[in-house]
Amino acid sequence: MNVPRVRFAPSPTGYLHVGGARTALFNYLFARHHGGVFLLRIEDTDRERSNAEMTGQILDAMAWLGLDVDEPPVHQADGLERHRADVAKLLNSGLAYRCFASKEELDELRAGAREAVVPFRYRESPAYDAAAAEDRAAAGEPHAVFFEVPGAEITFEDAVHGSTTVPGASLDDFVILRSDGTPVYNMAVVSDDVHMGITHVIRGDDHLSNTPKQLLIYRALGADIPVFAHVPMILGPDGKRLSKRHGAASVEAYREEGILAEALVNFLALLGWSPGDDREVMQLPELVEAFTLDRILKKAGVFDPKKLEWLNGKYLDMTGPDQLVPLVLEVMDEDGRAIAASDPDRFAAVVNLQKTRARTIPAIAETSLKYFVEPSSYEEKAVAKHWLRDPQSAREILQAERDILSKATSFDSETLEAELRVLAEVREVGFGKIIAPLRLALLGVQDSPGIFDVLVLLGADRAVTRVDAALAELERLDS
After folding, report:
1. What DSSP string runs through 2-34?
2. Is residue 443 pLDDT above 90, yes or no?
3. What string of DSSP letters covers 152-183?
């Protein structure tokens, strides 16, 4: 294989959607796997909908995901004169023709072709006059340009879908240049891909229907035809195409929700592609090593938010506090950052502990503050289960635990565990019956990391103060 050149070609009309990010990722992985070149083309010929802000957002999202391009981004709008020159080449070779008909006239002719069950061929209509068309063009009269579709079958190989054949007679002649002088999508894309030396076109399978027309343009220009690989679409949990109604749909939105870039990359790679084994947690170098086009699936991938959160939890657990603490501080308000700054070493230790159970960065931020601020409330279900089911027993256990914590000669995990296990034996109850009331007293919740890690990070004085507060709350609730 010659050095492959691939491109990601988004339109700057909105934030980078996860579907587009997945397409960019597949192109990136393919290029890196084969030592090729990964390019970015901003398809900004739609001046009304395109804007520089969205271009910046796309570039930022790709940089955040780690999808670095190998050459400066190309803007499709900059190629307008080349697009027109390629159209002129097709006109000169007789493979395209001019059309001066109005939209209404064309609509009527198309309707007639549909009624007759024949392809639309404006060149074959009585209204077409080749000689007059040349004279009118020479006079500067605005006009569109149509590509003349030959009658022969159009066959192409797709790296994902295999061989596809489309009868030429099933395609209408199609516009390649509008009357305002701007190229239509299919013309601009082929012209750009030829100019950029693209060898492989990896894109969503919603573009599969464009491929026959683009192949005709490639052939008409005498250009090398790239390898096509149309990747399956992404569906929401309801089986319908993923959209904003399924929740966050842009890369930026998931970033704001506390998803790590590494987790999102891993997740997107496995939507419509398989490494050939049962691996689920794969970092970027592993993905590059394993990625091949023949492992892209034909079946659409289903976007499972719970799977993404699970993966994010795995990556949070693999991330060190030096990297994680700044991300946590970023999502905190001013008061939260001030609390963290009051004891940065302990805050880093708390973050490092909480990451083992959290699945998003905001979740770490919220739970980490519980180590610095005493509970203002306690989970109702946990209170009912661990305190009020047997208030007298809960009160006795908490009081005994307070004594242990206040008198501990060494406030470390081993010492505290030994003391609390003795308490469980004395009261002849399971260890969980001892731990659950204490966990609720310390953090106000029934789920947390290991209780002894929590105690050590709180320290003796804070732990005792919180147990005292819990005893007072239990007394109030039971009175």
Report:
1. ---EEEE---SSSS-BHHHHHHHHHHHHHHHHT
2. yes
3. S-EEEEETTTEEEEE-GGGS--EEEE-TTSPB
Summarize pLDDT for 122-160 with one digit per residue, the tens.
788 887 888 888 889 889 999 999 999 998 889 999 999
- 274's CB contacts (< 8 A; 6+ apart) are 295, 297
Report d(CA 23, CA 268) in Å as an integer.
Answer: 9
Residue 365: C-alpha distances to residues 324, 348, 447 (Å): 10, 11, 16
- Residue 168, amino acid: G
**Residue that the structure tokens 């790296």 belong to:** 159
Q: Give CA torsion, residues 314, 317, 322, 324, to 10 deg.
A: 60
Catalytic residue among 244, 298, 307, 370, which?
244
- C-alpha 257/C-alpha 249 separation (Å) is 11
Q: Quick one: the chain helix, strand, coil %, rounded to 5?
A: 55, 10, 35
Q: What is the pLDDT averaged over residues 426-442?
A: 95
Average pLDDT (360-373) is 95
Two tokens, residue 382: 């946990």
DSSP E strand boundaries for 262-351 = 301-302
What pLDDT digit, counting tens, does each position of 220-252 carry? 999 999 999 999 999 888 888 887 666 668 999
pLDDT for 122 equals 79
Establish whether 244 is a catalytic residue.
yes
CA distance 315 to 254: 15
Comparing CA positions, the residue from 19, 39, 23 lying closest to residue 31 is: 39
Give SS3 for 205.
Answer: helix
Across the beta sheet with 227-231, the strand order is 162-166, 154-158, 227-231, 200-204
Calpha distance 424→409 (Å, rounded): 19
Residue 204: count other Cβ atoms within 10 Å of its Cβ.
17
For residue 325, what pLDDT is reported?
Answer: 97
Q: Give the global pTM.
A: 0.90
d(CA 191, CA 210): 14
Alpha-carbon span 13 to 11, nearest angstrom: 6
Question: DSSP strand E in 100-239: where?
Answer: 144-147, 154-158, 162-166, 174-177, 200-204, 227-231, 234-235
Residue found under tokens 């790239």: 226
Distance CA 435, CA 417 (A): 10
